Amino acid sequence: MKSQQARVAAIHDLSGFGRCSLSVILPAMSVMGIQVCPVPTAVLSTHTGGLGDVVFRDLTDYILPALEHYAALSVEFDCIYSGFLGSSAQIGHCLEFFEQYPDAMAVVDPVMGDHGKPYRTYTPELCARMGELVRAADLITPNLTEAAILLGEEYPQAPLSHVMAKSWLVRLSALGPRYVLITGVELADGTVSNLGYDAQRGAFWRVACDYVPVAYPGTGDIYASVAVGAMLTGDSLPIAMERATRFLEYAIKTTYGYGTDPRYGVMLERCLPWLTQQHSLKGYETL
Ligand code: PXL
């Protein structure tokens, strides 16, 4: 059963409030014309970023039966995209998804932490096993915190030189993935940039972001889903990176202008139509 539209299995949590994970991935990719099939790893009342006592229901025992059902139906996927995982056993289940669909693009957003710290539910064991998943990926989208954890490096306290940034990209790709995207990197040239590397072409890219003095949850999920959605609909890597970066700049600035509680996430609903429009994207640079 091959569909005309790209079809993605998204193995992420479903957080009811706070605009992250499946709650933002589904609308963002859908509006780009991609069919997203959610495979929830856990159901949470909110994200884990400062909204109090989260109600958390683990769905570890759901993932493999769901995979078996899709295989029995001969449903095909163009991409398997994993994100926030609720237990270390789920790493193995994601690997089984990748094995069942060897032709699908394997995307791993190695969700583990932000701002130099792991998220509350991410144990050292879960972080260690995330490396296994990264080895099986074609494309990974860590933020700088996650890149440091994957490389066993300290979170950088000073801006990264271009040489260091390139070395991190190459070392991450040496773990397995052809494409590496690192988000939110403060570079020594004074910019905060999203970086990209295509190991097959030996090509390094960067897209500089406008700085806004506030951090919203879910922006990494939106970045990864728009960048992956753009690649699945034919964009080159640097254009996909730029589309995702420009969209987030727009969503963050829209939200910042209203002064809403940052823990509630970006006002995605107001901004989604941007993703249906043509934009002239020519702001990427080589790194
Ligand atoms: O956006 C990453 C993310 C996804 N899922 C949950 C989270 C977070 C970040 O805080 O808490 C449940």
Shape: globular
Task: Report how far apart the termini are.
Answer: 41 Å
Arithmetic mean of pLDDT: 96
The percentage of residues in β strands lies in: 15-25%
- Topology, number of strands: 12
What is the C-alpha radius of gyration, as a whole number of Å? 18 Å
Structural class: alpha/beta
Helix proportion range = 25-40%
Give the names of the bound compounds.
3-hydroxy-5-(hydroxymethyl)-2-methylisonicotinaldehyde
How would a textbook summarize the main sheet? 10 strands, mixed
Discrete helix count: 9
Q: List the secondary-structure elements in sequence, H or E.
A: EHEEHEHEEEHEHHEEEHHHE
Spatial order of strands in the largest sheet: 3-2-1-4-5-8-9-10-11-12
Show unreliable segments. none
